[in-house]
């Protein structure tokens, strides 16, 4: 099984996260931010990854530290599990229509961290989740996972639908990229 657990403790957050890439698509736990929990649940369901999370954060300040730190820890878990990239498909891309919105993700699990995020939101927040934290989450995730991640929002009016489409598109692209590959490292260099 491709799984690991990561613990991160700072003055702002306490996080215990367990990730299983060969799971059944279940999310268990809470960040204390209802909409973000909804996104993590959608991410688990659509990727097929099991995600167990125990955490507390300084939500009396705002959601920033909690959301960003979950991205950091989730990225660290991916990097640890996928340290050997010779057994994965490496690339993944996916479109997700979410009612009136359309989200696209393309990614490369290469060890090279990069985020291109072309998405705009109308409102400052959805529930207690600041819309600007969508980019912060994926930036923290990409940089800690060593993933080149491109996310583009092609259509949409409702911020809930737009953000949910983004999380689902990333989940499906990751599911494709981590699929087993018996052909060795997918690189003309022979290494990643």
From TrEMBL:
GO CC, any one term: cytoplasm
Localization in the cell: Cytoplasm
Pathway membership, UniProt: Amino-acid biosynthesis; L-histidine biosynthesis; L-histidine from 5-phospho-alpha-D-ribose 1-diphosphate: step 6/9
GO biological process, one term: L-histidine biosynthetic process
Superkingdom assignment: Bacteria
Broad class of enzyme this protein falls into: lyase
GO molecular function terms noted in the UniProt entry: imidazoleglycerol-phosphate dehydratase activity
CDD domains, sorted: IGPD
Family from the record: Belongs to the imidazoleglycerol-phosphate dehydratase family.
Name by which UniProt lists this protein: Imidazoleglycerol-phosphate dehydratase
Organism, scientific name: Youxingia wuxianensis
Name of the gene this protein is made from: hisB
């Amino acid at each position: 099984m491709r799984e690991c657990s990561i613990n991160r403790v700072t003055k702002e957050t306490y996080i215990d996260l367990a990730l299983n890439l060969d799971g059944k698509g279940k999310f268990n736990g809470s960040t204390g931010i209802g909409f973000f929990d909804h996104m993590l649940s959608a991410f688990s369901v659509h990727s097929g990854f099991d995600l167990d999370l125990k955490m507390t954060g300084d939500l009396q300040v705002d959601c920033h530290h909690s959301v960003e730190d979950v991205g950091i820890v989730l990225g660290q878990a991916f990097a640890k599990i996928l340290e050997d990239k010779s057994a994965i498909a490496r690339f993944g891309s996916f479109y997700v229509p979410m009612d009136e919105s359309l989200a696209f993700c393309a990614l490369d699990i290469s060890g090279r961290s990069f985020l291109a995020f072309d998405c705009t939101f109308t409102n400052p927040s959805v529930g207690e989740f600041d819309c600007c934290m969508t980019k912060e989450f994926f930036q923290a995730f990409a940089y800690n996972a060593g993933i080149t991640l491109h996310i583009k929002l092609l259509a949409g009016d409702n911020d809930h639908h737009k953000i949910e489409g983004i999380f689902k598109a990333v989940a499906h692209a990751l599911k494709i990229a981590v699929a087993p590959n018996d052909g060795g490292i997918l690189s003309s260099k022979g290494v990643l």
